[in-house]
Structure formats: structure tokens, C-alpha cells
UniProtKB/TrEMBL annotation:
Keywords: ATP-binding, Helicase, Hydrolase, Mitochondrion, Nucleotide-binding, RNA-binding
Family: Belongs to the DEAD box helicase family. DDX18/HAS1 subfamily.
Functional summary from the UniProt entry: RNA helicase.
Organism: Plasmodiophora brassicae
Every Helicase C-terminal domain range: 371-542
EC nos: 3.6.4.13
Residue ranges occupied by any Helicase ATP-binding domain in the UniProt entry: 183-357
Catalytic activity: ATP + H2O = ADP + phosphate + H(+)
Residue stretches making up the DEAD-box RNA helicase Q domain: 152-180
CDD domains with a match to the protein in the record: DEADc_DDX18, SF2_C_DEAD
Domain notes: The Q motif is unique to and characteristic of the DEAD box family of RNA helicases and controls ATP binding and hydrolysis.
InterPro entries according to UniProt: DDX18/Has1_DEADc (IPR044773), DEAD/DEAH_box_helicase_dom (IPR011545), Helicase_ATP-bd (IPR014001), Helicase_C-like (IPR001650), P-loop_NTPase (IPR027417), RNA-helicase_DEAD-box_CS (IPR000629), RNA_helicase_DEAD_Q_motif (IPR014014), SPB4-like_CTE (IPR025313)
Protein name: ATP-dependent RNA helicase
Length: 630
């Protein structure tokens, strides 16, 4: 009797299981069902399910084919042993195909793939699976520009009447892409980490929200400083200050600027009276924060513009000190053309919450603007100046910027070109601040002209209608290249410009770095017959004109010293320079006697000694000193 009670339920369960097995599809049928969906093959994980099959709730797939139908009883029986959280996700309806949907993103949901890879997920599946911050790390929330519908009309923004009137006076009706993506986020109070190509209009992308922030808080001069904008260079600070003045035209808020080289006493007096919007360079700002008794405890907004450049030029420690001193309860807007680890570190310490990352150009194929035609020319050292002279002579009616690697090289070439009746102006770090300011605005307001400059003018400066960017000395890396050529083809869609890079034959490896950085360049050819052969006249001029000889000697020395400090040693190897040819490009018949503090040892020392300098002769070869006419 006892034996019957034990076996009877077992027989019934076996019969039930056989009946259910007869109604369920076979493994082959399950495979066929999967094939009908035309899903991609799974990755090399054996039974791993491809991301597209996970769709909304990745946890509902335990094993096997996700598309195989399951009997209702079996599914209920399968969920009894699971936690309520898992069972609840199985029962959830499919999320709408909308990137703006709200709701938490489950850890088990697939992360969207947006790396341009051929094996990326289907875009519709990704959109259906992700919430507004589907790609979250410990630093920022990413906004994929391709997934957000934009309204480029300034009228779509909730702005004060005073700001609207100012924008009308300036002539702004349509936003650029970075403005359309960043301004609404900033007006809503979010911290933003923005990345956009130079010349994209990001100055207004942070100035408009900053002004609106002060307007809504009803800031008065007695409240002190409410918004601080930190920028790397004096020229960029002056330019941002000019835009801020225009934007504040109909507002009651006050504005001011503190920069190195300015009158510190006047800055101090104005700060004490109350500056609501303050534009500053890092060093001078830190000086005032530590030594000037002005009110900044009510600060509600901090803007760090060109953050990568601030860090590159050695202001990281000052920036960290500034962030420590300023009130932590504020909105932060950080803009950077490149996203380095140091920039991410600054973003982490300067923002109160995870900033929204807006990468305007992340989904675009090229790192430079569309309307920019870019080319290079391979030219030996001794013919570089001849080619530059010929080019400038034929483009006197254009607006041209020529970049050099050192201040002394800018100074010499400006003196030389002006002497031989090619009018140019110069801008570099060794000029007094008043001269730098007047030169900058002179070129900004000119319809045509030639500006010789160092990289002090390569970052952020908005110089309208530049026709040509000439890089006479190559940039230190692709990032600097991008910023240099960003001085043309700026602003509105459809803007045009041209860029030309001078390269020595041994520097052509730099093209690989440009290609890797998604910078499209093509080779330009200049017929030899069209290059002015004025070398003998140049050498005679340098030999007989004392101030040009002295300037050329300093420029020659600075060029070699700067070349030795280049970061891309595989491209810019100082030991590969033919110093006799370099000397000729500066108007010498032989390398001049100058101190070159370059360590040359072993094979390189022996190999290069014939070119003018080695360990025993650090001054290089020199002829009898020339006799100058007085």
C-alpha cells in the first residue's frame, strides 16, 4: 500500500510532462523561428544572445533562444523560484522608442553602442533600450547629438526681454549646433561638459545662460561677483568680455575683466565696487581671490573655457586652487575642444553632480569644419622663406594668418617683410599687453591684411572672414593643428576658408598623425617657376642691415631650440635638420655663431657635426662677422 502511494504521483507527473513535451517545439523548430527574424549571429560566446534579441528587458532571457514561444504554465512555474524584481521586469511592457523617455536604466540592460563600429547595435533597438542617461559613467551623462531633435531658433528659448533685445542688436537669429544643444540644458540648471570644434560658437553657448542666471537671481552690484569665466589667454579674455558687454547692454548687471598685464589697482577698485560677470585669466584671478577683498561668496556660476588649453600652458595648479576657493554650490559650465584625462579630472572636481557631456562633433567623420580646404606643401629648408614670400606677394588683398613656432621668429619675419614692402602686423607673447590688444583688434576690424603670430592667437579667437591660414612652422601635434586652422571657416554654416601647412621632407610622417586624428589634407603643388628667386638679395640685406642680422640670428637660434623641444620626436627630430639649409632660410650664407643648448652625443653628434654644431662646438660654424653699414 505504501509503495502505491509513492509511485502513483510519479506516474501522473511523467504522463503530464510527456504531453507537454509533445506540444512544445523542438530545438530545430526553435532555430527556424530565430532564422525567420533575420537576427545577426551571436558573438563568439557559444549560446550568448545577440544584443538585438534582448530589446527591453535583458533579464527575461535565461538561456536558449529568446524568440522561442513558451507555454504560459511553464513560464509561471519558471518564475516561482525567481525574485520578485526579476519577475517584475519580465512583465514590463516594451519601452517607447524615444530617447527622451524617463525612468531608471536597469544594470542588466545592454549598453548602447555608439563607437562607429560595423558591429554596432541596430540604432532602433538601442533607442528602445536606453533612457535619457543610458551611457553613464562616474564623470558625466552623455548626450548623443544624433538622437536629439534641435530647434535652432533663438525664439524657442525662454529668455528675458533684455537678452532678446541684445541678441537682436547683435544680429543673432539662429543658433549654431553647440548653442542649440547646450543652452537649453544650461537654462534648466544642469552642469555641462561641452566638446566642440573651435569656431563653433561656444562663447554664446555659455554667456547667454550665464547672463540669464544672474537675471533670474536679480543680481545687483552689491551682491558681488555672480559668474566667473576663466579663459587661457588675454586675447581670448578680451574677446569674451566684448561679447559679454554686448549681451548685457539692456541688463542692470555689471561686468569686468582681470588679466595679466592689466592695471591691477584699477581691477581691484572695480572688483570692490561689484562686478557681477567677471572674465579672467587663471593667474590674475587667483591673485585677486587671495589678495583682494571683494565679494564672491554669492557666486552662482563658473565657466571654464578652453579647459584643455588652460592645462596645457601650465595653469593646472592655479585652476585647482581657484576651484577650492570658490563656493561649491554653483552651476558649472566647462568647455574643451579635446577631452583628455586631465580635463576629466578637472570636471570631476569642479562640478557638484555628474555633468551632461555634449559632444557636438563626436558623430562626425572629420575633426575640422566642412567649409575648410586643407593642404600641405613639402619644401626644403632653404626654400621655405622664398615660398612664403611668393605666396604673400600674390595674396596682399586677402586676409591671411601665418603661424610661427617662436616669438623671435615672428619678430624677425615681421621686420623683414615690412622692410621689403610686404605690410604685416605681429602678435606674440613678448609684446606689451597694450600692443597685443591694439594689434588684435586692428586685424579683427581689417578687411584684408597679414598677421604673423605664435599660437597665442590659435585658441578661441574669433577673427572674421580669414581667407588663408598658413602654418609656416608646423604645429606641435594634431590638436594644435585643429586650433590653428580653426581661425578660418568659422561661425555660420557654409563658411569657407583655406589652410596650408609647410613641411620639410623629413616631416611627412606628420601626415599619419593627422590622418589618425581624422584631419583630411591633400598635397598642394607650387611650380618652381612661380617661386621668386630672391635668395641672394635676402642674404645681402641681412649681411648689411644690423638690426635685421641681429633679429635673424635670434630667430635662427629660437627655431632650433624650439624644434628640439617638439613632443613628436619621431616627426620633428632636431638631429635631422641641415643647419646650413636652415641658416639660408633666415638669410645667412652659413650657420651663425649662436649658443645652442642641445645635448648631442654619440652617433648623432658625429653625424650632425658637419651641419654646424656638435658637443665641442655648440655655437655652430660662422664666417667672419659681417661689416654693417651705419
Amino acid at each position: 500500500m505504501t509503495q502505491v502511494t509513492v509511485t502513483q504521483p510519479e506516474k501522473k507527473r511523467r504522463r503530464r510532462n510527456k504531453a507537454k513535451a509533445a506540444t512544445a517545439p523542438s530545438e530545430t523548430q526553435q532555430e527556424n523561428v530565430g532564422q525567420k527574424e533575420a537576427l545577426p549571429e551571436p558573438a563568439s560566446g557559444g549560446g550568448e544572445v545577440p544584443a538585438e534579441t534582448v530589446g527591453v528587458a535583458g533579464d527575461q532571457v535565461q538561456s536558449g533562444d529568446a524568440t522561442a514561444p513558451q507555454p504560459a504554465k511553464k513560464r509561471r512555474r519558471g518564475t516561482r523560484g525567481k525574485s520578485q524584481a526579476v519577475a517584475g521586469r519580465e512583465a514590463e511592457p516594451e519601452a517607447p522608442n524615444n530617447v527622451n523617455q524617463s525612468g531608471p536604466v536597469e544594470e542588466a540592460d545592454p549598453e548602447p553602442v555608439n563607437d562607429g563600429n560595423e558591429n554596432a547595435q541596430n540604432e532602433e533597438d538601442v533607442k528602445g533600450a536606453e533612457g535619457p542617461s543610458a551611457d553613464v559613467d562616474d564623470t558625466s551623462r552623455n548626450v548623443n547629438p544624433a538622437d536629439v531633435a534641435l530647434d535652432y531658433d533663438f525664439g524657442s528659448l525662454e529668455l528675458s526681454t533684455a537678452t532678446r533685445s541684445a541678441l537682436t542688436d547683435i544680429g543673432y537669429e539662429r543658433m549654431t549646433e553647440v548653442q542649440a544643444r547646450c543652452i537649453p540644458l544650461l537654462l534648466s540648471g544642469a552642469d555641462v561638459l561641452g566638446a566642440a570644434k573651435t569656431g563653433s560658437g561656444k562663447t554664446m553657448a555659455f554667456l547667454i545662460p550665464a547672463v540669464e542666471l544672474l537675471y533670474k537671481a536679480e543680481f545687483k552690484p552689491r551682491n558681488g561677483t555672480g559668474v566667473i569665466v576663466i579663459t587661457p589667454t588675454r586675447e581670448l579674455a578680451l574677446q569674451i568680455y566684448g561679447e559679454a558687454r554686448k549681451l548685457l547692454k539692456y541688463h542692470s548687471q555689471t561686468h569686468g575683466i582681470v588679466i595679466g598685464g592689466g592695471n591691477r589697482k584699477q581691477e581691484e577698485d572695480k572688483l570692490k565696487r561689484g562686478v557681477n560677470v567677471l572674465i579672467a585669466t587663471p593667474g590674475r584671478l587667483l591673485d585677486h581671490l587671495q589678495n583682494t577683498n571683494f565679494t564672491f561668496k554669492n557666486l552662482i556660476g563658473l565657466v571654464i573655457d578652453e579647459a584643455d588649453r588652460i592645462l596645457e600652458i601650465g595653469f593646472e595648479q592655479e585652476l585647482r586652487e581657484i576651484i577650492k576657493i570658490l563656493p561649491s554650490k554653483r552651476q558649472t559650465m566647462l568647455f574643451s575642444a579635446t577631452q583628455t584625462q586631465k580635463v576629466k579630472d578637472i570636471a570631476r572636481v569642479s562640478t557638484n553632480k555628474s555633468p551632461v557631456y555634449v559632444g557636438v562633433d563626436d558623430h562626425k567623420e572629420a575633426a575640422t569644419r566642412k567649409g575648410l580646404t586643407q593642404g600641405y606643401v613639402v619644401c626644403p629648408s632653404e626654400r621655405r622663406f622664398l615660398l612664403l614670400y611668393s605666396f604673400l606677394k600674390r595674396n596682399l588683398k586677402k586676409k591671411v594668418i601665418v603661424f610661427f613656432s617662436t616669438c623671435m621668429s615672428v619678430k624677425f619675419h615681421a621686420e623683414l617683410l615690412n622692410y621689403i614692402d610686404i605690410p604685416v602686423i605681429e602678435l606674440h607673447g613678448k609684446l606689451k599687453q597694450s600692443k597685443r590688444t591694439s594689434t588684435f583688434f586692428e586685424f579683427v576690424n581689417a578687411e584684408r591684411g597679414i598677421l604673423l603670430c605664435t599660437d597665442v592667437a590659435a585658441r578661441g579667437l574669433d577673427i572674421p572672414e580669414v581667407d588663408w591660414i598658413i602654418q609656416f612652422d608646423p604645429p606641435s601635434d594634431p590638436k594644435e593643428y585643429i586650433h590653428r586652422v580653426g581661425r578660418t571657416a568659422r561661425g555660420v554654416a557654409g563658411a569657407k576658408g583655406k589652410a596650408l601647412l609647410f613641411m620639410l621632407p623629413q616631416e611627412v610622417k606628420f601626415l599619419h598623425h593627422l590622418k589618425y586624428a581624422k584631419i583630411p589634407v591633400c598635397e598642394f603643388e607650387f611650380p618652381t617657376s612661380k617661386i621668386a628667386n630672391v635668395q641672394s638679395q635676402l642674404e645681402a640685406l641681412i649681411e648689411k642691415t644690423y638690426y635685421l642680422y641681429k633679429s635673424a640670428r635670434e630667430a635662427y637660434r629660437a627655431y632650433i631650440q624650439g624644434y628640439a623641444q617638439a613632443s613628436l620626436k619621431d616627426v620633428f627630430d632636431v638631429h635631422s635638420l641641415d643647419l646650413e639649409a636652415v641658416a639660408r632660410s633666415f638669410g645667412f650664407t652659413a650657420p651663425p655663431k649662436v649658443p645652442l643648448k642641445i645635448a648631442l652625443t654619440g652617433k648623432n653628434s658625429r653625424k650632425r657635426s658637419r651641419h654646424g654644431f656638435n658637443q665641442d662646438n655648440p655655437y655652430g660654424d660662422a664666417k667672419t662677422p659681417p661689416q654693417f653699414s651705419r
